[in-house]
Amino acid sequence: MTDGMLERNAEELDLPALIAATGHLHPREATRDLTDRVLEATGQALTDDATLLVLDWHAEHGRGRHTHAGTPA
Fold first, then answer.
1. By residue range, what is the domain housing residue 40?
2. Which part of the chain is the PPM-type phosphatase domain (predicted)?
């Protein structure tokens, strides 16, 4: 995340807790949720541009992954 995502208007956002809470989501869904939460915390008004990078690490091989809609990840 860039400093634009960690802006002063989102001070109340508990980023480590939010990352932990979205750990079970597909990366695409986690990205959407993280972005939505930052926008909610700022009142939908970012004062700077922002970049969010989410990496999907497959530590457990051989296990299928699916989105909440059921499509293969």
1. 1-73
2. 1-57
